[in-house]
Design a protein that fits this description.
about 250 residues, Rossmann fold, six-stranded mixed beta sheet, 8 helices, disordered C terminus, binds adenosine-5'-triphosphate, binds magnesium ion, nucleotide-binding
């Protein structure tokens, strides 16, 4: 059968991650198969503690799985070192977190330009890219501000600019509106939708089902597994969720 769907930008098979902290081990991710294709806007939603952030950390190489594999653009990451993952995050994966994670001692301009400079972009071009993105995100005039001088919504827009400055094929967002009020939340969602309309592939993690409805595919995550994987109107059809993930939900 021919497959004319866009190529996968990210693929994962059999991902497992258990956290060993103070208490009992937390089985955060218990066997996840996932395929995200170019241009998709996928939301992963589910209750607190379901393992959503852990899954996103695995997919961005911020944590290592105990088992399973991840492919970026069809290339296996099994042998990637920490340093190699850091390079790939600069080039291929932009990440936005709930609490922005901006460098508090750097200006807005420097926060956005830094990943571009680290990726080897000539300073002039990094500056032009920063100016373009900050204008697009409504932050012109804030270049010299420090992150602490901005509102939460503004800080999150800076974080979005920073994540997108190197034109990553994939944007991973973990509760990017989680610490914002409803106006800030709407703003972030509107921006994500706009970038998606221009072709940006997005994987959004949120516990908020309403936010998830902005995506064209919604994955319900429950107890470390994919419980449901649904394409909303107009989206690219995903591969079916692993049937085992559904059947094993109750154990
Ligand atoms: N670094 C860690 N050390 C120990 N346990 C952890 C660690 N990170 C997560 N966990 C545990 O793993 C499970 C899944 O956590 P995770 O943060 O992935 O959930 P989540 O779905 O993102 O929740 P939330 O919606 O509250 O952000 C939880 O039981 C959590 O306590
Ligand atoms: Mg989380």
């Amino acid at each position: 059968m021919s497959d004319d769907r866009p190529a996968p930008v990210l693929r994962a098979e059999g991902l497992v991650k258990t956290h060993h902290g103070e208490g009992a081990p937390a089985h955060a991710v218990r066997g996840v198969d996932l395929c995200v294709r170019h241009g998709e806007f996928v939301a992963i939603t589910g209750p607190s503690g379901a393992g959503k952030s852990t899954l996103l950390h695995l997919l961005g190489g911020l944590q290592r799985p105990d088992a399973g594999s991840i492919w970026l653009d069809g290339e296996s990451t099994d042998t990637y070192s920490e340093a190699r993952w850091a390079v790939e995050r600069r080039k291929r994966i932009g990440i936005v977190f709930q609490f922005f994670n901006l460098v508090s001692s750097l200006s807005v301009a420097d926060n956005v330009e830094l990943p571009a400079l680290l990726a080897g972009t000539p300073p002039k071009q990094a500056r032009a890219e920063r100016e373009r993105l900050l204008a697009e995100l409504g932050l012109t005039g804030k270049e010299r501000s420090m992150p602490g001088e901005l509102s939460g919504g503004e800080q999150q827009r800076v974080a979005l600019a920073r994540a997108l400055v190197n034109h990553p094929p994939l944007l991973l967002a973990d509760e990017p509106a989680g610490s914002l009020d409803s106006k800030g939340t709407r703003e972030v969602m509107r921006l994500l939708s706009r970038f998606h309309q221009r072709g940006q592939t997005i994987l959004l993690v949120t516990h908020d089902a309403r936010l998830a409805s902005a995506a064209d595919r919604v994955i319900s995550f429950f107890d470390g597994r994919i419980a449901d994987d649904a394409t909303l109107d107009g989206g690219t059809p995903p591969r079916r969720a692993g049937i085992s993930g559904v059947l094993e939900l109750k154990d």
